[in-house]
Design brief:
2 domains, alpha+beta, 2 helices
């Protein structure tokens, strides 16, 4: 039986060999059989948005924590409320950027 490759967002997997890898992997594993079909599964807009929000929320927590430690090294001393506001501004920008890029690449891959 031949392999069938399925790409879902940034995950690619073989349905027969059960291998999976990051779509952007420069040296993905080689399927044991002949590849007969590659399928791209379109990610829904709500799924894209939820993934972006969760990813960015984790990034926000890391960024604000890092600011609290890194800013004083550069002699920048601001209240935690300002750290939170700065982080929030960049978080909103990051969510918009990530969502737009994800939908763009989803559009390109699934035409």
């Amino acid at each position: 039986m031949n392999c069938r490759i399925v790409q879902y967002s940034d995950l690619t997997m073989c349905t027969k060999c059960h291998l999976s890898w990051d779509t952007n992997d420069v040296s993905p594993p080689v399927c044991k059989n002949k590849i007969t079909k590659i399928i791209f599964i379109n990610q829904k807009k709500l799924q894209s948005l939820m993934e972006v929000i969760i990813n960015t929320a984790i990034g926000y927590i890391i960024a604000v924590t890092a600011q609290c430690y890194i800013f004083p090294i550069f002699n920048i001393h601001i209240p935690i409320s300002d750290d939170l506001k700065i982080g929030l501004i960049f978080t909103v920008i990051s969510i918009a950027r990530s969502y737009i890029l994800r939908r763009f690449f989803n559009y390109i891959n699934c035409r």
